[in-house]
Amino acid sequence: MIAPAGSVDGIAAALLANGLVLRGGFNFAPGEAPPTGSSDAPARAVLLVGQAGAAPWPHFLRWRVKQSQNIANPLDSWSREVISAVAETFGARAVSPSDRPYLPFQQWAMRAEGLKPSPLGILMHPQYGLWHAYRGALLFDDELPIQAAEPGPHLCDTCVEKPCLKSCPVDAYSPQGFAYQSCLAHVRGVNGEPCRSGGCLDRNACPCGTAYRYPLEVQAFHMASFARDGRLIEMQLSKLDD
Predict the structure, then answer these.
(1) Contacts of 69 (CB under 8 A, 6+ apart)
(2) CB-CB contact of 129 with 210 (8 Å)
(3) Structural domain spans, the chain
(4) 222 — phi, psi (to 5°)?
């Protein structure tokens, strides 16, 4: 168990040492059915852990060179290791977006930060745009001195042109949803090199948060993972809540 006073600040500092940031949190309300915390009892609070821009990348690379090259999903493994260490220090249970059965990370994130999905499914952040991600969460047995954010203006509501729906050569994103198989086939195909090396064209077309846009090597890493095994958690977190 952690002492409430200063605990959230301490967690934020521990995460920041690895380029990760707290992405808000909330206390579960009576009557909800949250997952268990560090004990077998239902958790009372959750803190979301993620990134803004590519800040964790140098930390991940330093870790990566010391690991076996056969790790299937190295960024997931690094995230779990870092977040689990923080959880152990502060008496929490660490969980990941790729855990099964899937936890409602998208719903938690919208509740914690007051965000809404973009047409691409990625939550639109007023500062980071689409260039952010959630790497895990910390579940606590006790309530914390935190309050969920109030919803603010949704940048996508004021975007008339919607360039994020017009740049993909196979129209993978549309108001009807994400054409997953079309996207995957294109990225793997002979014409998919621009996406493999430069990232999702629709995502890059968004004019919001460009100061936090991932460097090309980071985007290429995520697209290579997608082309290899079809996992697009970085871009399609909303699919985890279906």
Answers:
(1) none
(2) yes
(3) 7-152, 156-241
(4) -65, -40
Q: Compute the distance between CA of residue 242 and CA of residue 201 in angstroms, rounded to an integer.
A: 25
Whether the Cβ atoms of residue 73 and residue 225 lie closer than 8 Å to each other: yes
Q: Compute the half-sphere exposure of residue 82: CA atoms within 13 Å on the CB side of its CA.
A: 29
DSSP 42-57: BPSEEEEEEEETTTTH
Yes or no: say if 11 and 22 are a contact pair by the CB < 8 Å rule.
yes
Spatial neighbors of 209 by CB under 8 A, at least 6 apart, are: 125, 127, 128, 129, 130, 131, 132
69: left (phi over 0), alpha (psi -120 to 50) or beta: alpha
C-beta atoms surrounding 174 within 10 Å? 11
Residue 222 gets which letter from DSSP? H
Burial call 111-138: b when 16+ CB within 10 Å, e when fewer: bbbbbebbbbbbbbbeebbbbbbbbbbb
The amino acid sitting at 149 is A
Among residues 211, 40, 9, 59, the alpha carbon closest in space to that of 129 is found at: 211
DSSP summary character for residue 186? H
> Per-residue pLDDT tens for 24-66?
999 999 999 999 999 989 999 999 999 999 999 999 999 999 9
pTM: 0.91
Handedness of CA 49, 50, 56, 61 (dihedral sign): positive
